[in-house]
Design brief:
single chain, mainly alpha, Arc Repressor Mutant, subunit A, three-stranded antiparallel β-sheet, 3 strands
Length: 117
C-alpha cells in the first residue's frame, strides 16, 4: 500500500475527520463555520484539517482574513480508486467461487412441477 493511500485511510478513520469531509463535500467552509457543527474546539478542528490536508484530502485558500477549506478531488479520487479495485477484487473472487461451486455440485434432475392432467 503506498504512503499517500495509507495516510488517506488513516485520516478518514477518525469519525470527526470523516464528518468534516462530509461537511466540506456539501460546500467549502472556513474553520469557524466548521467548528460550529462539532463538539470539539476550533483549534481541534484546525488540527483535524491539518491531518486531512497532509493526507491530500482537502486544500485551502486565503479569503480575506479566513482560510477556506474544500475537498481536494485528486485525493478523494485516489481513495475511490482504491475502494473500486478492492470491490472489483471481491466481486471477481465471489464470481469465481460461485462458478466453482456450480461446477462441483452434482446437478439434480429437474422435477416436473406442472399439475397432473
Amino acid at each position: 500500500m503506498n504512503t499517500q493511500l495509507h495516510t488517506g485511510l488513516h485520516a478518514i478513520a477518525d469519525q470527526t475527520r470523516l464528518a468534516i469531509l462530509q461537511r466540506l463535500a456539501e460546500q467549502p467552509l472556513a474553520v469557524a463555520e466548521l467548528a460550529r457543527g462539532f463538539s470539539v474546539s476550533r483549534p481541534a478542528v484546525s488540527q483535524h484539517l491539518k491531518v486531512l490536508k497532509d493526507a491530500g484530502l482537502v486544500n485551502d485558500r486565503q479569503q480575506g482574513t479566513q482560510r477556506i477549506y474544500q475537498i481536494d478531488p485528486a485525493g478523494i479520487e485516489a481513495l475511490k480508486a482504491h475502494f473500486d479495485r478492492l470491490w472489483s477484487s471481491v466481486l471477481d473472487n465471489f464470481q469465481a467461487s460461485a462458478e466453482e461451486e456450480l461446477e462441483t455440485t452434482p446437478r439434480k434432475e429437474k422435477k416436473d412441477v406442472r399439475k397432473p392432467k
